[in-house]
Amino acid sequence: MKRIIKNNRFVRGLYFFYNSYFGAKRRSFGYLAENTIITPPYNFGNKRNIFIYDNVGIGPNSFISATNAKFVIKGNCAIAEGMTVHTGNHANVIGMFVSDINEPNKPKGYDEDVVIEKDVWIGCNVTLLSCVNVGRGSI
What we know:
This protein has 139 residues and is of the alpha/beta class. It is built from two helices and 13 strands, in the order ααβββββββββββββ. The strands form three sheets. The chain has a five-stranded parallel β-sheet, with no helix packed on it. The model has no long low-confidence stretch (mean pLDDT 85).
């Protein structure tokens, strides 16, 4: 029965709709300030590594993949729609196929934190990759 429900496209669609509009519970994040505005739909991976501080507004259609490294927004930031954040990189190991490399056997140093300092304005459709530090007051 569980497999039938899991493979049902309608049920899966309802689950993803609910998760992308109502899935941002404060306790599931590493830190989420009270006065943060996150406009749905959004897709956040591993919310425990996402830290969003005071007076931050995030536009719709945002994707944050914080699998093994942290994503930090320090405060007073405005982020437009379509922001994409990746805190990890693909590993290239000699002698292994790309499909055989997963998180346990990936070498260290491929996943780095992404930090956005205070008073930053990020425009539409921006992609932030690992090890990026957006300085204070940047546009």
